[in-house]
Amino acid sequence: MSADNPQICFVQCYYGAWPHYWRLWADSAAANSEIRFILVTDLGPPDFVPANVTIIKMNLKEVIERLSKVLGFELKIFGYHKLCDARPFYGLAFNDILEKFDYWGYCDMDVIFGNLDPLIHLAKLEFDVISPWTHTVGHCTLIRNDKLVNEMPLKIPNLRTRFSQVGTTFLDEGGYFEVCVAKEGLRFKGVSCLINEWAKKICFLGATFHHWNIIWGTENMKNFAVICDKKSVTLITPTGQKHEVLYFHFMAAKNKRFWRHLEGKLAFPFTFLPYGFVPRLVAAQELHSFGFLIRCTTTRIRSNIYRIPRELTPNFIIQIIKKIRVAVRGLRRT
What is the pLDDT of residues 280-319, one digit of tens each? Predict the structure, then answer.
């Protein structure tokens, strides 16, 4: 590896249909031109594909065959979301695609990247695993492309059982981190204390919009603004403090109602508020207005009206419902 210029790429397996927020992801990926992004899919290319994004045509059956080969047991066809469990094994399954890279990683599509240069800097220091959180996370984890490092996820116990479950078992996050990173002594670079990291103006963190309409890991921050510009993402707290982060992960805001004002070509800068996309910069003082508070509260109630009974439902019932969805609706809704 060249310490001055490590070759880095993120790889995603993506199936179903390109999301309506594709341009958000693509434009922010394009701004980080020193990093490559590889999309493994059977879809035709979308209207806009940045120069640093490569689309490789491969159907889900072939991906599962590759995974079965490296895992040592046969996988059945599973729902698209189950690919989250497969992520730690991409370094082995796609060795022929990733062999020229010093680092490979996995990320999500519901992400707007800011400045990813800190990842490049840490790759130069040759850490084995890099994640802008306290542990490996599905929305952004970087792994040194070394045979021994890539083989570490094979040590995760009960892999056959976990892959037989319909829903994700978080192998890409807790499973990978606890067994291969925290216990096996790989050189991990992450965040040791979230409170201390969030206190900084420039944070080695991603900001995740959680299903409870809060920014995750910030002591349940409810009323906020995320300013997205070309190669920068800044979180503004209710007190007006600004924190630059690596990316905005809008996990709980994929629904089109959060993006109804997004029309035509994406234009930076823009703001994301708890109730959705705003095509302009929002001043910090607006976060204290009565109208803003009402809209945030209304959105929070609407988004979580079903979550309370879901949290109270036993897991085995949820698994049965997921199996029925796979049988009735097909792969996409898993």
Answer: 998 877 888 888 888 888 887 777 776 667 667 777 676 6
Dihedral Cα 171, 176, 177, 178, nearest 10 deg: 90
Position 77 confidence tier, pLDDT thresholds 50, 70, 90: confident
Let me know: does 171 contact 181? Beta carbons within 8 Å.
no
d(CA 28, CA 22): 10
Q: What are the tens digits of pLDDT across the range 25-56?
A: 999 999 999 999 999 999 999 999 999 999 99
What is the identity of the amino acid at 193?
C
Domain ranges of the chain: 8-189, 196-304
Per-residue CA distances from 189 to 10, 78, 240, 323 (Å):
17, 32, 29, 37
Strands 8-13 and 103-107: parallel
Between CA 30 and CA 113 the distance in angstroms is 9
Among candidates 133, 143, 129, 188, which has minimal Cα distance to 10?
143
Q: Exposure string (b/e) for 82-113, b if CB count within 10 Å is 16 or more?
A: bbbbbbbbbbbbbeebbeebbbbbbbbbbbbb
What is the per-residue DSSP string for 54-99? EEEE--HHHHHHHHHHHHTSPPPP--GGGHHHHGGGHHHHTHHHHT
Angle at 37 between CA 31 and CA 40, to 5 degrees: 145
Domain 8-189 CATH superfamily: Spore Coat Polysaccharide Biosynthesis Protein SpsA; Chain A (3.90.550.10)
- Other Cβ atoms closer than 10 A to 241: 12
Structure-token match 């007006």, residue found = 240
If one counts every other C-beta atom within 10 angstroms of the C-beta of residue 203, the result is: 20
**What would the pLDDT profile of 234-259 be if each residue is shown by its tens digit?**
999 888 889 999 999 999 899 998 99
